[in-house]
Amino acid sequence: MDIATFISRFIPRKLWVPGFLLVLLIVLATLPSYAGSNRILFLSATTLMYIALAVSWAMFSGTTGYMSLAVAAFFGIGIYTTAILRPLVPLGVVFTAAGIVSFLIALLVGLVTLRLKGIYFAIFTFGLVVLIGQLAVYYDIHVLGVKGHPVAPTTYPIMYYCMLGLAVATVLVVYLIRRSRLGLALLSIGGNEEAAAHMGVNTTMVKVLSFAISAIFMGIAGAIFGARQSFIDPGATFSVGYSFSPVLMAVFGGMGQLYGPVIGAAIFSLLDYWLSGRFPNYYALIFGVILVLVILYMPGGLVGLMPKLRNGLGGVIAKLRKGNGAGQHANT
Amino acid sequence: MRILEGRDVTKYFGGLAAVSHVDFHVDQGEILGLIGPNGAGKTTLFNLISAALPLGSGEIRFKGQKLNGLKPHQICKMGIARTFQQTKVFADMPVLQNVLVGAFFGKTRRVSGADAAKEASQALELVGLSAMSATPTRDLTLVNQKRTELARALATKPELLLLDELMAGLNPTEVSEAMELVKEIRDRGVTIFMVEHVMKAIMGISGRIVVLHHGEKIAEGTCSEISCNKQVIDIYLGEEAHAGG
Amino acid sequence: MIEALPGVLINGCLVGGVLALIALALNIQYGVGRVFNIAHGEFIMLGAFITYTVYVGYGAVAGGIDPLISLAISGPLLFIVGFVLYRTLFTSLRTRAPSPAAFEGNSLLAAFGLIFVIQNVAILIWTGRTRAYNWEYDFPVPFAGTVFRFSQIIAFALAIVIGIVFYIFVNRTRLGKAIRAAAQDPATAGLMGININMVLALCFGFGALLAGIAGSLLSMYSSISEVMGLGYAIGAIIVMVLGGLGSIPGSFIGGFIIGIIGSIVTYVEPALVVPAYYALFLILLLVRPQGLLGK
Questions:
Q1: What's this model's pTM, rounded to 2 decimal places?
Q2: B1-65+159-245 domain in CATH 3.40.50.300?
Q3: Is residue C139 part of a domain?
Q4: Interior CA angle at B170 toward B167 and B171, to 5°?
């Protein structure tokens, strides 16, 4: 008898994934009590942040094939929202505002560009971070008359819990979307947009809506991140690097499954933390090379390698998935 | 009743008229064939009807309603579905999921998951793919991919079905099966407008035939009229043709 | 302010000439190779730094090679970089991609990754400080109430010359015709005996060469830094959209228009140049996405 059958005697197969997730959630929720050093909290919060960014990026770009290079723009909008509003309103309002502003801007960008061929969308989003960054700097200097914003940073535990909540919410929302009509529509657009349109899918609205929804999470992630800063300078806030990392994480992890970007984010977040301490000049270069190599040789990401892993681990993973797969349409 | 009517339909690409002042109509319940040499404008005409391309000039009416300016998804919801000359299946999805897209989005009203699943399996059964519903579509043979595309179109519950070279690439047995299938679909109340090169097929099941050449309609009539039409025969000399019923 | 107008316009033309060259290079890579090389700015940056290195000297390299002569170094070096990149990375992507849309998406992401690779290699080599130099033959040129620099005029003149030479090359030579055939219909061109992979790689390399030359020219009158590429890439993108994606004459006209607009906005409020570009971008996408001369 193999491991899978053995365990299934005590816990029914259907409960394996939900059970695992519940345990994971409890472990994460109680983290500050048993591993509450600031360093660990910051690292964990950053990992959760990248999970939210990678998952929300993959939700739109991974399914439709429309490459958004604008994660940093919405992330920066979130940070800047914190800079402006934090002194005035409680955190909850700041985060909500960041989500709304990101949603509206993404809506505008989407309405203009997603009616057209995918390349227009990509190149428009490419420069978006520079555009919004320059606008923010201009606003600071000429309208507000300030050079950056000092902010009272929140505590590490608060930042951690907010990021945890965001990551959980992002994964949950994207999970629900994947199983919904919207998710099916997104996949159909990625499969063949013209055919999808001819089968009744309002492709433009689906794209615009999904893109805008994905921006919400990026904006809130930025807002939470900004809440931990003591000084926010829009010149440094809008950095292309924040567009790069989530893309690397999602592509490496694999966009065919929801947990692909999660794994990618976890791996690279830790790798980033470890490498930036020891090889500060080389790790960004390494990450860039990894992205190129992954696109070349591993386009399905880690998730795409699963079938090979399946054989290698003696069928355990296959059994896990088969037991959980009844009744779903197979691509989730 | 004329379910589809086109008047003076014209489309230019640059200086070239792909479709030139074509009048046509499709009667409800018939199978109308559209033939013509390569480049005659047949697929372009389909693209104009389904709004894959914007109409140059003229008008197309479906059940009396003008189609000008509508988008493909709106035309689908009105009741026109189509297949494509080069199959456009959703390759990474299993067959069932392909058909579900049609079932969910092809109608104006909101469809429940259960209803969509039911309609999808019915469509798959009709085309004979029930056994393969979980297979990834990219692993299918060409004929089965065409069946998937057909089932997907049927799942939108169309009143008019545009078939673009359904038989292309099929062997003679598959062609006969396809012919029976098309007749069965018509017998269930769907009007058929089909482009075809395989003469045996189109002559065998069409009621009427429209012939395009260089974007213009040069003949229209029953199969026997068309197969005796000197102009049509001249055009097809040199083409691989199996004219005559 | 009206007195400044002629100076601003001329400055815009000077800048526009080089912008046109940059956009031309990007258009070759996209129109023929179907790769939208958003890492284009990094090739410009490399050209600028190569010229700086051989003129001013850096590390093991003694200086002294005039910037205009360094074009003969930066051009071919960047050509090799572009050619090799296309033959290895993008050709692989093209053959492995399940569809043209997938190739476009993948090559976009790969180019995005390249930005970070090239930028960080440059930072490793040149330590990430903004640099500038004074060309020994440079001198101020007062005209129409503004003072230009001779280097700007030289850069402009060279950009125009290169553009004309390229135009003749594409329209009159056999290789040029092969390139146009490959751009229009790669499959058929391949059947007619044209080595598609070689032609596409040559074009991509040639686009990189032009970018490198543009960077070298820029370095003669602008300061340079390892992160300068992004701004030029964005400018080139907007020039391309204005002129029409894939249209080479379009990118020339677009380059001048954008150069002039940029010059005017810089005169009024330099901090709003990119927002002005994006406002134009937005309007274009709403009103005429195919640009001036696009299909």
A1: 0.92
A2: yes
A3: no
A4: 130
